[in-house]
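B., you asked whether I could sanity-check this one before it goes into the benchmark set. Here's the sequence:
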Amino acid sequence: MAELCYFTGPMDCGKSTLALQLDYTHSAGGRRGRLFTSHDRAGEATISSRLGLIRPAIEVAPDFDFWLYVVDELTSGERIDYLVCDETQFYRPRQIDQLARLADELQIDVFAFGIMTDFQTLLFPASQRLVELCDKIEVLQVRALCWCGQRATHNARTVDGEMVVEGDQVLFGDTVAFGEPGLTGEPTEVVSYEVLCRRHHRRRVTRAVAQATLSDPLPFGRDGDDEALG
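And here's what the prediction gave me:
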């Protein structure tokens, strides 16, 4: 039986790397698949990993229909055994329904990779639909790390290094270098993303804030503390 499998985790935990590895493993075993993505960091119609791996893929636009695409390919004589779908947090919920239908009715395995929650710790609509429909969820075992060294579980949006909790759910960062003039000729605010542990996400303490203020207590005492207490 084909399955709809959802692989998830915060940023920097190797989702795209695993997606490309899974495609390689299945294709090496004689299976034929298709790669899909949406808004990859390397540009349109591309799956890229932070390790430097990169493969062409089909860009999933808001009006893309997985069911029609696959049916057209099959009726044209093409063979499709599986789909690898990266950056699924940017898909539409109806597209997730289409992926489930492909698994159920055409026996095509679907491997979906994406972030579950946004910078406000709320579920992306497509991610919520994946949780509702998938056959199994696998949380990636490669642990992204917060600046403090603890396991990072939350995605934070930052503007010039400071965490923000308001704004559109989808906003792409790292598009303008720090201090680079924008369209008005003035320096543009730098929108980026950072992974944090829950404690520092709640406190809004990013790496830049911690380095600038040292406001967050260290998890150990300084030399001389014991003597001072004694």
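One thing to flag: DSSP finds seven helices and eleven strands in the chain. Otherwise nothing jumped out at me.
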